[in-house]
């Protein structure tokens, strides 16, 4: 189970790094602290909010207001997946 959590977190951190334009090739994606450090996660939130003209970000804003980094991280990851797939209606309608 620990391996699965590690693998999922590593892939999610890679996803965020790519979204942010960070070259993670020489960095262990598990070490990117998006899921643990608000200082790393909030610039991602800001970029998502910056896409507001085209995509609904209410769920991310609601997650930030919980002051729970795990909830916010999960919403950011889901947003990026939907954004990358071009399926923003799916994200908005949930």
Description:
The protein is 65% helix and 0% strand. The protein is mainly α. The chain has one domain (2-93). The longest helix is centred in the N-terminal third of the chain and has 18 residues, at 2-19. It starts with a helix and ends with a helix. The model is unreliable at 90-94 (pLDDT under 50).
H-E order: HHHHH
Low-confidence stretches: 90-94
For the termini, the CA-CA separation is 28 Å
Strand elements, count: 0
Overall residue-averaged pLDDT value: 84
Number of helices: 5
Work out the count of structural domains: 1
Note the main sheet. none
**What sort of overall outline do the alpha carbons produce when their principal axes are compared?**
globular
Tell me the structural class: mainly alpha
Strand content: under 5%
Please tell me how large the radius of gyration is: 13 Å
Residues in helices, as a percent range:
55-70%
